Amino acid sequence: MKAIVINAYGNEDVVNYVDVERPEPKADEVLVKVRVAGVNPFAKRRLCLIDWKIRNGAGERLGLKLPIFLGGEIAGTIEKIGSDIRDFKEGDAVYGIVTSGGYAEYAIAKIGEIAPKPQSLDFENAAAIPLGALTAWQAMFDLANLSSGQTILITAASGGVGSLAVQIAKAKGAFVIGMASGRNEAFVRDLGADKFVDYTKQNFEEVVKDVDVVFDTVGGGTFEKAFQTLKPGGFLVTAVQFPSAETAREFGVHAARVYCKPNVEQLTAIGKLVDEGKLTAHVSTVLPLAEVKKALQLSESGRTRGKIVLQIGI
What we know:
This protein is α/β, with parallel strands linked by helices.
Protein backbone atom coordinates (compact mmCIF):
# COMPACT_ATOMS: atom_id res chain seq x y z
CA MET A 1 0.00 0.00 0.00
CA LYS A 2 1.03 3.64 -0.41
CA ALA A 3 1.90 5.63 2.71
CA ILE A 4 3.73 8.78 3.78
CA VAL A 5 6.77 8.28 6.00
CA ILE A 6 9.73 10.30 7.24
CA ASN A 7 13.11 8.72 8.04
CA ALA A 8 14.69 11.98 9.20
CA TYR A 9 13.58 15.40 10.45
CA GLY A 10 13.63 18.49 8.25
CA ASN A 11 11.69 20.29 5.53
CA GLU A 12 9.42 18.73 2.93
CA ASP A 13 12.40 16.96 1.33
CA VAL A 14 12.31 14.33 4.10
CA VAL A 15 8.71 13.37 3.30
CA ASN A 16 8.54 10.11 1.33
CA TYR A 17 5.67 8.61 -0.67
CA VAL A 18 6.41 4.91 -0.45
CA ASP A 19 5.10 1.36 -0.72
CA VAL A 20 4.79 -0.45 2.62
CA GLU A 21 3.17 -3.62 3.84
CA ARG A 22 -0.48 -3.34 4.79
CA PRO A 23 -0.88 -3.55 8.60
CA GLU A 24 -2.99 -6.17 10.36
CA PRO A 25 -5.34 -5.22 13.19
CA LYS A 26 -4.87 -6.65 16.67
CA ALA A 27 -7.80 -8.01 18.67
CA ASP A 28 -8.91 -4.55 19.85
CA GLU A 29 -8.25 -2.74 16.56
CA VAL A 30 -9.81 -2.23 13.15
CA LEU A 31 -8.18 -1.75 9.77
CA VAL A 32 -9.64 1.26 8.00
CA LYS A 33 -9.50 1.75 4.25
CA VAL A 34 -8.75 5.47 4.25
CA ARG A 35 -10.75 7.47 1.73
CA VAL A 36 -9.66 10.95 2.83
CA ALA A 37 -7.18 12.26 5.42
CA GLY A 38 -7.17 15.68 7.04
CA VAL A 39 -4.07 17.89 7.12
CA ASN A 40 -3.41 19.76 10.35
CA PRO A 41 -0.79 22.28 11.46
CA PHE A 42 -0.38 21.51 15.13
CA ALA A 43 0.96 18.73 17.33
CA LYS A 44 -0.48 17.34 20.56
CA ARG A 45 1.61 15.43 23.06
CA ARG A 46 2.23 11.85 21.96
CA LEU A 47 -1.31 11.32 20.79
CA CYS A 48 -2.54 12.73 17.50
CA LEU A 49 0.99 13.85 16.66
CA ILE A 50 0.77 15.00 13.10
CA ASP A 51 2.00 16.76 10.06
CA TRP A 52 4.64 19.41 9.49
CA LYS A 53 5.54 20.14 13.11
CA ILE A 54 6.51 16.52 13.61
CA ARG A 55 8.42 16.58 10.35
CA ASN A 56 10.26 19.74 11.44
CA GLY A 57 11.53 18.10 14.64
CA ALA A 58 8.73 18.06 17.21
CA GLY A 59 8.73 14.28 16.95
CA GLU A 60 12.34 14.10 18.12
CA ARG A 61 11.72 16.46 21.06
CA LEU A 62 8.82 14.29 22.14
CA GLY A 63 10.80 11.08 21.94
CA LEU A 64 9.24 9.55 18.84
CA LYS A 65 11.33 6.99 17.02
CA LEU A 66 12.00 7.14 13.29
CA PRO A 67 10.65 6.13 10.87
CA ILE A 68 7.38 7.99 11.53
CA PHE A 69 4.21 7.46 9.53
CA LEU A 70 2.43 10.80 9.24
CA GLY A 71 -1.27 11.56 9.47
CA GLY A 72 -3.74 11.53 12.35
CA GLU A 73 -7.21 12.33 10.98
CA ILE A 74 -9.15 10.01 8.70
CA ALA A 75 -12.47 9.12 7.13
CA GLY A 76 -13.01 5.78 5.46
CA THR A 77 -14.55 2.33 5.70
CA ILE A 78 -13.68 -0.59 7.92
CA GLU A 79 -11.78 -3.21 5.94
CA LYS A 80 -11.11 -5.72 8.71
CA ILE A 81 -11.97 -6.03 12.40
CA GLY A 82 -10.08 -7.54 15.31
CA SER A 83 -11.48 -10.51 17.20
CA ASP A 84 -12.63 -8.41 20.18
CA ILE A 85 -14.56 -5.85 18.13
CA ARG A 86 -18.32 -5.87 18.61
CA ASP A 87 -19.52 -2.35 17.80
CA PHE A 88 -18.36 -2.22 14.17
CA LYS A 89 -18.49 -4.49 11.16
CA GLU A 90 -16.63 -4.60 7.89
CA GLY A 91 -17.87 -1.95 5.48
CA ASP A 92 -18.97 0.54 8.15
CA ALA A 93 -18.21 4.18 7.30
CA VAL A 94 -16.21 5.82 10.09
CA TYR A 95 -14.26 8.95 10.94
CA GLY A 96 -11.91 9.91 13.72
CA ILE A 97 -8.30 10.37 14.79
CA VAL A 98 -5.54 7.78 14.90
CA THR A 99 -2.19 7.76 16.66
CA SER A 100 -0.22 7.63 13.41
CA GLY A 101 -0.32 6.45 9.83
CA GLY A 102 -3.38 8.31 8.61
CA TYR A 103 -1.64 9.36 5.39
CA ALA A 104 -1.94 5.91 3.89
CA GLU A 105 -4.27 3.71 1.93
CA TYR A 106 -4.98 1.73 5.11
CA ALA A 107 -4.66 2.74 8.77
CA ILE A 108 -5.02 1.00 12.11
CA ALA A 109 -7.53 2.48 14.55
CA LYS A 110 -8.25 1.42 18.10
CA ILE A 111 -11.73 1.35 19.49
CA GLY A 112 -12.21 4.74 21.11
CA GLU A 113 -10.51 6.58 18.25
CA ILE A 114 -13.28 6.33 15.64
CA ALA A 115 -17.05 6.79 15.42
CA PRO A 116 -19.68 6.31 12.74
CA LYS A 117 -19.33 8.90 9.98
CA PRO A 118 -22.12 11.51 9.95
CA GLN A 119 -24.68 10.30 7.44
CA SER A 120 -25.05 13.71 5.81
CA LEU A 121 -21.36 14.03 4.92
CA ASP A 122 -19.27 12.51 2.17
CA PHE A 123 -15.80 11.27 3.09
CA GLU A 124 -14.10 14.45 1.90
CA ASN A 125 -16.03 16.65 4.29
CA ALA A 126 -16.06 14.08 7.08
CA ALA A 127 -12.25 14.06 7.13
CA ALA A 128 -12.30 17.81 7.80
CA ILE A 129 -14.21 17.42 11.07
CA PRO A 130 -12.76 15.14 13.80
CA LEU A 131 -9.53 16.69 15.04
CA GLY A 132 -10.57 20.33 14.76
CA ALA A 133 -14.01 19.73 16.21
CA LEU A 134 -12.70 17.64 19.11
CA THR A 135 -10.03 20.24 19.85
CA ALA A 136 -12.65 23.01 19.90
CA TRP A 137 -15.11 20.96 21.95
CA GLN A 138 -12.57 19.98 24.58
CA ALA A 139 -11.17 23.51 24.77
CA MET A 140 -14.49 25.29 25.09
CA PHE A 141 -16.50 22.84 27.17
CA ASP A 142 -14.16 20.46 29.00
CA LEU A 143 -11.68 23.17 30.02
CA ALA A 144 -13.38 26.57 29.81
CA ASN A 145 -16.90 25.34 30.71
CA LEU A 146 -18.50 27.58 28.09
CA SER A 147 -22.26 27.68 28.57
CA SER A 148 -25.29 29.11 26.80
CA GLY A 149 -25.49 32.89 27.07
CA GLN A 150 -21.79 33.42 27.63
CA THR A 151 -19.55 35.36 25.26
CA ILE A 152 -16.54 33.80 23.54
CA LEU A 153 -13.80 35.32 21.39
CA ILE A 154 -12.41 32.90 18.81
CA THR A 155 -9.15 33.91 17.15
CA ALA A 156 -8.34 32.65 13.64
CA ALA A 157 -12.07 32.13 13.22
CA SER A 158 -11.71 31.35 9.50
CA GLY A 159 -9.18 28.55 10.00
CA GLY A 160 -9.68 24.81 10.13
CA VAL A 161 -10.20 24.71 13.91
CA GLY A 162 -11.64 28.19 14.37
CA SER A 163 -14.34 27.75 11.74
CA LEU A 164 -15.58 24.65 13.55
CA ALA A 165 -15.33 26.33 16.95
CA VAL A 166 -17.53 29.22 15.81
CA GLN A 167 -20.28 26.84 14.70
CA ILE A 168 -20.10 24.60 17.77
CA ALA A 169 -20.13 27.51 20.20
CA LYS A 170 -23.08 29.07 18.38
CA ALA A 171 -24.96 25.75 18.36
CA LYS A 172 -24.55 25.60 22.14
CA GLY A 173 -26.03 29.07 22.62
CA ALA A 174 -22.95 31.25 23.10
CA PHE A 175 -22.51 34.79 21.78
CA VAL A 176 -19.61 34.40 19.37
CA ILE A 177 -17.03 37.02 18.42
CA GLY A 178 -14.98 35.82 15.47
CA MET A 179 -11.59 37.34 14.67
CA ALA A 180 -9.89 37.09 11.28
CA SER A 181 -8.65 39.30 8.45
CA GLY A 182 -11.22 41.46 6.70
CA ARG A 183 -11.25 39.32 3.55
CA ASN A 184 -12.79 36.54 5.64
CA GLU A 185 -15.53 38.58 7.29
CA ALA A 186 -18.41 37.28 5.17
CA PHE A 187 -17.19 33.71 5.66
CA VAL A 188 -16.96 34.04 9.45
CA ARG A 189 -20.34 35.74 9.72
CA ASP A 190 -21.89 33.00 7.60
CA LEU A 191 -20.54 30.48 10.10
CA GLY A 192 -22.75 32.13 12.70
CA ALA A 193 -20.49 34.69 14.39
CA ASP A 194 -22.51 37.42 16.10
CA LYS A 195 -19.69 39.95 15.86
CA PHE A 196 -16.59 40.18 13.67
CA VAL A 197 -13.21 41.75 14.44
CA ASP A 198 -10.72 42.49 11.67
CA TYR A 199 -7.33 42.20 13.34
CA THR A 200 -5.64 43.92 10.39
CA LYS A 201 -7.57 47.15 11.04
CA GLN A 202 -8.27 47.06 14.76
CA ASN A 203 -6.35 46.34 17.93
CA PHE A 204 -8.69 43.60 19.03
CA GLU A 205 -7.70 43.93 22.68
CA GLU A 206 -9.05 47.48 22.61
CA VAL A 207 -12.43 46.70 21.02
CA VAL A 208 -13.20 43.37 22.69
CA LYS A 209 -13.80 43.49 26.44
CA ASP A 210 -15.35 41.43 29.23
CA VAL A 211 -15.69 38.13 27.39
CA ASP A 212 -16.16 34.93 29.37
CA VAL A 213 -13.92 32.74 27.23
CA VAL A 214 -11.19 33.16 24.63
CA PHE A 215 -10.27 30.23 22.39
CA ASP A 216 -6.95 30.95 20.71
CA THR A 217 -5.31 29.02 17.89
CA VAL A 218 -2.82 31.75 16.88
CA GLY A 219 -0.43 32.10 19.82
CA GLY A 220 2.36 34.66 20.16
CA GLY A 221 1.29 38.27 20.51
CA THR A 222 -2.36 37.41 19.87
CA PHE A 223 -2.36 35.02 22.81
CA GLU A 224 -0.68 37.55 25.11
CA LYS A 225 -3.06 40.37 24.19
CA ALA A 226 -6.11 38.12 24.57
CA PHE A 227 -5.78 38.29 28.37
CA GLN A 228 -6.91 41.91 28.16
CA THR A 229 -10.26 40.93 26.63
CA LEU A 230 -11.42 38.69 29.48
CA LYS A 231 -13.66 39.62 32.37
CA PRO A 232 -12.38 38.79 35.89
CA GLY A 233 -12.59 35.06 36.38
CA GLY A 234 -12.73 34.43 32.63
CA PHE A 235 -10.94 31.61 30.86
CA LEU A 236 -8.34 31.69 28.08
CA VAL A 237 -7.75 28.34 26.42
CA THR A 238 -5.18 27.86 23.67
CA ALA A 239 -4.25 25.09 21.28
CA VAL A 240 -0.79 26.45 20.48
CA GLN A 241 0.75 28.17 23.51
CA PHE A 242 1.98 27.23 26.98
CA PRO A 243 0.08 29.57 29.33
CA SER A 244 1.82 31.24 32.25
CA ALA A 245 0.10 30.79 35.60
CA GLU A 246 1.70 34.06 36.70
CA THR A 247 0.15 35.99 33.80
CA ALA A 248 -3.25 34.43 34.49
CA ARG A 249 -3.05 35.49 38.14
CA GLU A 250 -2.03 39.00 37.11
CA PHE A 251 -5.22 39.38 35.08
CA GLY A 252 -7.40 37.48 37.54
CA VAL A 253 -8.36 34.81 35.00
CA HIS A 254 -7.74 31.16 34.22
CA ALA A 255 -5.63 29.81 31.36
CA ALA A 256 -4.94 26.35 29.96
CA ARG A 257 -3.72 24.55 26.88
CA VAL A 258 -5.95 22.00 25.19
CA TYR A 259 -4.55 18.61 24.21
CA CYS A 260 -6.94 16.81 21.91
CA LYS A 261 -7.83 13.26 22.90
CA PRO A 262 -9.98 10.72 21.09
CA ASN A 263 -13.48 10.63 22.54
CA VAL A 264 -16.18 8.54 20.91
CA GLU A 265 -19.03 10.17 22.84
CA GLN A 266 -17.92 13.63 21.76
CA LEU A 267 -17.35 12.51 18.17
CA THR A 268 -20.86 11.10 18.15
CA ALA A 269 -22.31 14.35 19.56
CA ILE A 270 -20.37 16.31 16.94
CA GLY A 271 -21.75 14.02 14.26
CA LYS A 272 -25.26 14.73 15.53
CA LEU A 273 -24.67 18.48 15.15
CA VAL A 274 -23.52 17.82 11.59
CA ASP A 275 -26.59 15.77 10.72
CA GLU A 276 -28.83 18.43 12.31
CA GLY A 277 -27.32 21.02 9.97
CA LYS A 278 -25.65 22.98 12.78
CA LEU A 279 -22.06 22.14 11.85
CA THR A 280 -20.55 22.19 8.38
CA ALA A 281 -17.08 21.28 7.21
CA HIS A 282 -15.27 23.84 5.07
CA VAL A 283 -12.72 22.20 2.81
CA SER A 284 -10.44 24.71 1.10
CA THR A 285 -8.09 22.37 -0.78
CA VAL A 286 -8.25 18.77 -1.95
CA LEU A 287 -5.03 17.10 -3.11
CA PRO A 288 -4.06 13.51 -3.92
CA LEU A 289 -1.88 11.66 -1.43
CA ALA A 290 1.06 11.88 -3.80
CA GLU A 291 1.00 15.69 -3.41
CA VAL A 292 1.37 15.58 0.36
CA LYS A 293 4.39 17.90 0.26
CA LYS A 294 2.29 20.65 -1.30
CA ALA A 295 -0.43 20.05 1.30
CA LEU A 296 2.05 20.41 4.16
CA GLN A 297 3.47 23.60 2.63
CA LEU A 298 -0.01 25.10 2.45
CA SER A 299 -0.72 24.05 6.02
CA GLU A 300 2.54 25.53 7.28
CA SER A 301 1.79 28.85 5.58
CA GLY A 302 -1.22 29.38 7.86
CA ARG A 303 -3.02 31.21 5.06
CA THR A 304 -5.70 28.70 4.21
CA ARG A 305 -9.42 29.13 4.84
CA GLY A 306 -11.01 26.02 6.27
CA LYS A 307 -9.38 22.62 5.84
CA ILE A 308 -6.86 20.92 3.56
CA VAL A 309 -7.53 17.24 2.87
CA LEU A 310 -5.78 14.44 1.00
CA GLN A 311 -7.82 12.25 -1.33
CA ILE A 312 -6.59 8.67 -0.94
CA GLY A 313 -9.17 5.99 -1.75
CA ILE A 314 -12.28 5.76 -3.88
